[in-house]
Every structure is written in C-alpha cells, then in structure tokens.
Design brief:
Structural class: alpha/beta
Radius of gyration: 18 Å
Order of helices and strands: EEEEHEEEEH
Shape: elongated
Oligomer: single chain
Number of helices: 2
CATH superfamily: Lipoprotein like domain
CATH class: Alpha Beta
Largest sheet: 6 strands, mixed
Distance between the termini: 22 Å
Helix content: 25-40%
Strand content: 35-45%
CATH architecture: 2-Layer Sandwich
Amino acid sequence: MLTGCGIYSFTGASIPAEAKTVSIQHFNNTANLVNPLLSEIITNTLRDYFMNQTTLEEVPINGDLAIEGEIVDYKISPTAITVDKASLNRLTITVNVRFINIYDDSKNFEQRFSQYEDYPSNQDLSSVQDELMESICEKLCDDIFNKAVVNW
C-alpha cells in the first residue's frame, strides 16, 4: 500500500520507494576547540542511525540520499551561576549538515543542529567528556535523521 504512494515507512522514516542507498561523508571538525574523537563519533553514530532504522544500503559516495557536514562549534560555558562561581557547565556541540535527496529536491536542506549536556562544575571535563559527547551525538543524529527522513 505504501509503495503505491511512492514512499515506504520503516520505524517512522518516510523515504521514496526508489531510494536504495545512502552516503554519509566524514564530518570534518572545523571548530575552534577540537576534540580528536568527535569527528569519528558523530559520523559513525549517524551511519548507525541510518543502517539500524532504514533498509537503505550505505555507499561511499553518490547515494540516493546523501549527507555531509562539519562540526562547527564545540564549547564549554557556565550555565548555573551561584554567588561567586558556576555550579554547572555546559558542553555544546554544533554541526552544519547538508542533505540531498536525488528523488525529491524539496527535501534537500542545509541546516545547523546544536545540542548540549550540562555537568557539575566541580567535575573535570576530561572525566565526563566521553559520556557527554556520546549523549550529545545521539541527540544530534536523532535531530538530523528526523529532519532528513521523518519530515518533522
């Protein structure tokens, strides 16, 4: 029934029936503050999203659906200020994403996505950074996936 409409739905995704492949390029890190692991984490998490939630085959380039982008910001800022110091710090990651759907140009976009996690200021960032990055990357990839193929 959905094939007759030209789309299929798998875990909420609306993808043209003729789309069979997706290509997700490596996200370069152009932020002022660079974490050397972040490019791999965001790229692999996004690839996992598409492999686990669609029936699309991943190809290195020129997929029916194509995603590329870069990490444009990675920053730590105080968020909850007490009398004389911050009680919470915030790690924020921002990515710029370009999405191309070769079957429907109206779905193409270029957009920035930003997510954050707060952590107690008495904790050293290096002790919580890996966990925070993974959580933030999951949220970013969820946002990117939803914008690209769930059409929210």
